[in-house]
Write a structure and sequence with these properties.
mainly beta; OB fold (Dihydrolipoamide Acetyltransferase, E2P); 4 domains; five-stranded antiparallel sheet; elongated; WH-like_DNA-bd_sf
């Protein structure tokens, strides 16, 4: 079955004057227009394509890579506001419509917003929504501390940054756990810090506890190499100075340097850290 709004791996069935017809194991066919046809295709070869409805509402495939897929989230730019809603640039020729009823705030041209892409059951069209909370659930959270996750920064709150976790759940990165610039739309690698009894998820941008040591030490070593083997940081450096240079807390910095020192990779002097 060909799934609209997602990538499909299909077989090349035949070549025509308007493009290639691709098909699945169930006998469903879809057109890949000439402008997307690779020069070295072969009949019966498999191709990975994105499938959606074109401007004439016909199923079509493309080798272009959209910025969002069905049931996913992304930060998209408004290219036009029309009579029915806002049209977003999602990397394809036909823009993604976010109807006015699906806007958490009235969208404006040239601004960017976090949106969810879904199949509207009434129109059977791929549709966008900035009311992202209704597409997220923390009911079935099955994470352990330090599990790696993908996060999309959603919005700023008084406590920190609200994020979308693995395109399924809602999480929060507290301001105290942020040591580098963060903005809406950033895709980051995070780690589960805590899953509370009420299913709220706390996220850290660094591994927790003992598991934090090795990646942190490597980060400091990489920065030393980048700076010619020297960093003007030491135990008396301020937390702000360490955060600005390495995007680390002073506690994480001291632990990472301690590992490097014990491994005899660095020497600590009054003016800073020297790589051996």
């Amino acid at each position: 079955m060909i799934e609209l709004g997602n990538y499909n791996t299909l077989k090349v069935l035949r070549s025509t004057s308007i493009g290639l017809f691709l098909g699945d194991d169930e006998g469903t066919e879809i057109l890949l227009p000439n402008k997307y046809v690779p020069e070295d295709f072969q009949i019966d070869q498999e191709m990975k394509v994105f499938c959606y409805l074109d401007n004439a509402e016909r199923p079509i495939s493309t080798t272009l890579k959209p910025k969002i897929v069905r049931n996913g989230f992304a930060c998209l730019k408004v290219v036009e506001v029309g009579a029915y809603g806002a049209f977003m640039d999602w990397g394809l020729e036909k823009h993604l419509l976010v109807p006015f009823r699906e806007q958490s705030q009235r969208m404006e041209e040239d601004n960017k917003y976090i949106v969810h892409c879904y199949m509207d059951e009434e129109s059977m069209r791929l549709t966008g929504s900035s009311r992202v909370d209704k597409f997220l659930s923390n009911e079935n959270v099955a994470y352990e501390q330090n599990d790696p996750v993908d996060v999309l920064v959603h919005r700023k709150t008084p406590l920190g940054w609200e994020v979308i976790v693995d395109d399924r759940h809602k999480g929060l990165i507290f301001d105290s756990d942020i040591f580098k610039p963060v903005s809406v739309g950033d895709r980051l690698r995070g780690f589960i810090k805590n899953v509370r009894d009420d299913k709220k998820i706390d996220i850290s941008l660094q591994p927790i506890g003992a598991k934090m040591l090795e990646p942190t030490a490597k980060m400091i070593l990489d920065k030393l190499v980048e700076n010619g083997g020297f960093l003007p940081l030491h135990d008396k450096s301020s937390p702000e100075e360490i955060k600005k240079t390495l995007h680390l807390s002073k506690k994480a910095f001291k632990k990472g340097v301690g590992i490097l020192y014990r491994q005899r990779k660095v020497n600590i002097q009054d003016d800073g850290i020297h790589m051996l």
